[in-house]
Write a structure and sequence with these properties.
The protein has 11 helices and no strands. With 182 residues, it is mainly α. The chain folds into 2 domains: 98 residues, Tetratricopeptide repeat domain (Serine Threonine Protein Phosphatase 5, Tetratricopeptide repeat); 47 residues, no CATH class.
């Protein structure tokens, strides 16, 4: 569910000129490694789309072997680990993605979800709040923050998230509202 939303929201990054791109590749071997990593990464995404998390995970881990600073590979390692029920390992992968890319709002969101699965609600709340600091209009982060407040019995804070969500995503706002007044 979180993965599909991420694909839908994919946006191109800051464009680079050919010269800038070329300067990052120092020789043919580096170019080959980079292209191979990219191919392996996208193969992992294909397995992920077919819900074969074990195979996808092995591809993302191979990417990291060649390119240990690939934040998206760590993100998807975390996603696969989460889907396989390995939430502690998912937390570590999401943290690594965040170390590499500190403004990775989606990684903070998924980190919060993994913390929730582990019953580490205070850490989940902080992860969601960080995702919101990065992207104040991140509806899913507000929604999951509201859910976590509900788990802790804090209806007033959940209601605050509902009020914010009304302007961001009516469907998520209504779902949260229904849970608050269930």
């Amino acid at each position: 569910m979180l993965f599909q939303a991420k694909i839908i929201k994919l946006k191109p990054g800051k464009p680079k000129t050919f010269t800038e791109w070329k300067n990052n590749i120092t020789n043919a071997e580096d170019l080959f490694d980079w292209l191979t990593s990219l191919e392996v990464f996208y193969t992992g995404l294909l397995f992920l789309l077919s819900n074969d998390y074990h195979k996808a995970l092995s591809y993302f881990e191979r990417v990291i072997e060649k390119n240990p600073s690939y934040a998206d590979a760590y993100f998807y390692i975390g996603y696969c680990k989460s889907e396989l029920g390995n939430y502690t390992e998912a937390v570590e992968a999401y943290k690594q993605a965040i170390r590499i890319k500190p403004d990775y709002a989606e990684a903070y969101l998924n980190l919060g979800v993994a913390y929730n699965k582990l019953g580490r609600y205070a850490e989940a709340i902080e992860a969601y709040k960080q995702a919101i600091r990065i992207n104040p209009d991140y509806a899913k982060a507000h929604y999951y923050l509201g859910l976590t407040y509900l788990i802790l019995g804090n209806k007033s804070s959940a209601l605050e998230q509902y009020k914010i969500l009304k302007n961001l995503d009516v469907d998520l706002a209504n779902r949260l509202f229904d849970l608050i007044f269930k």
